Amino acid sequence: MIWEGLIARLSLVEGSFDDLDAFARLAAVLVDLDHRRGKVGNYVFYLSVPPSAFATVCNQLAEIGLNRPQRGWRRVVVEKPFGHDLSSSRELGQVLEQVFPPSSIYRIDHYLGKETVQNILALRFANGMFEPLWNNRHIDHVQITMAETVGVAGRAGYYDGVGAARDVIQNHLLQLLALVAMEEPVAFDADSIAAEKIKILSAAELLGPLAQTSARGQYGPGMANGHPVVGLTGEAGFPLESTTETFAALTVGIGTRRWAGVPFYIRTGKRLARKATEIAVTFAPPSHGSAAVRTTAVSNVLVFRVQPDDGIELHIGAKRPGGGMDIQPVSLGMDFRSVFDQAPKRTSG
Ligand code: BG6
């Protein structure tokens, strides 16, 4: 029913990126649709195209005048990778900004649409009990993990030469890091949140030479879900000599008064044993107390389970019933499905 209503509203304009006529046809279709449906001409150009084609497509849109609204607004959406280093990223920014004003350019990251990710700020700032502990006096380290069971089959054109660090660390996982570490924004709007994230990312630093603070790997052949699977270089489209990493790990510090000395361990990989994206904040052990309790104490860990089984968990130590002081780890949990009686909004990349 919904699908039928939707397809009745879809139009297809075919053409190659360098074909200006195709963009002229696109413009004509849009004008016609506006006219027939009584719309004002609000257009979003979602560039689901290889990054190497961004400049050509933007220039064609400009050539045909589609970037300049008569009425309504124009927006352009691009997905990562936004270049492969600082200078190529700036170059991409310049290309986009020649055609669209900065406020119309959307660099999207689908992780920010996940409920549990949005909940990081809610949990931190809507509750009084976490913020007093949220610093290097009480937090020992933070682990940010994105483990996947899937390989990269079918995505060679995009993934080869990009690799895990550029695919998910520089965007999804650094966004998680920023949300965990940032100060409270003055308002919950895009500019205020971005301002705080920028401060954290500007203060992020490697905690030593790359050789000691990072690791890269590539999956080889093996078994997944009980079936044999090929290694990366056996996947269609990957050359045998590909050195593209499918696993990457990095230790990052944040040079601020709040975080100095706290390592943030970031890691991701494909074809790992289980799928799990989570942030584990490990608190420092009690600094004093009875020696008997201290020696058996367990780590307090606050875990944001981004997926699957979206939820929040707090690991604490509790005394096992019976004689003696036998402390064992127990966990207090909240899962979104049962609490809010519906699956949290999910996005997929
Ligand atoms: C995408 C990456 O951005 O995120 C993929 O390009 C990755 O390589 C995907 O598999 C994971 O998304 P999610 O929402 O399943 O964690």
Describe the secondary-structure layout.
Layout: H1 2-7, H2 20-37, E1 43-46, H3 54-63, E2 74-79, H4 86-99, E3 105-108, H5 115-126, E4 139-147, H6 156-159, H7 163-181, H8 190-203, E5 204-206, H9 210-213, E6 214-217, E7 222-224, E8 227-229, E9 247-254, E10 264-269, E11 276-283, H10 291-296, E12 301-307, E13 311-319, E14 327-335, H11 336-340
Parallel strand pairs: 1-2, 2-3, 4-10
Antiparallel strand pairs: 4-11, 5-9, 6-9, 7-8, 9-10, 11-12, 12-13, 13-14
Helix pairs in contact: 3-4, 7-8
Bound molecules: 6-O-phosphono-beta-D-glucopyranose.
Keywords:
single chain, 349 residues, alpha+beta, Rossmann fold, Dihydrodipicolinate Reductase, domain 2, nine-stranded mixed sheet, 11 helices, 24% strand, binds 6-O-phosphono-beta-D-glucopyranose
What features would you describe in this structure?
The chain is an alpha+beta fold and 349 residues long. The protein folds into two domains: 2-108, NAD(P)-binding Rossmann-like Domain (Rossmann fold); 112-340, Dihydrodipicolinate Reductase, domain 2, CATH 3.30.360.10. It has helices at residues 2-7, 20-37, 54-63, 86-99, 115-126, 156-159, 163-181, 190-203, 210-213, 291-296, 336-340; strands at residues 43-46, 74-79, 105-108, 139-147, 204-206, 214-217, 222-224, 227-229, 247-254, 264-269, 276-283, 301-307, 311-319, 327-335. Strand 7 and strand 8 (227-229) form a beta hairpin. The longest helix has 19 residues, at 163-181.
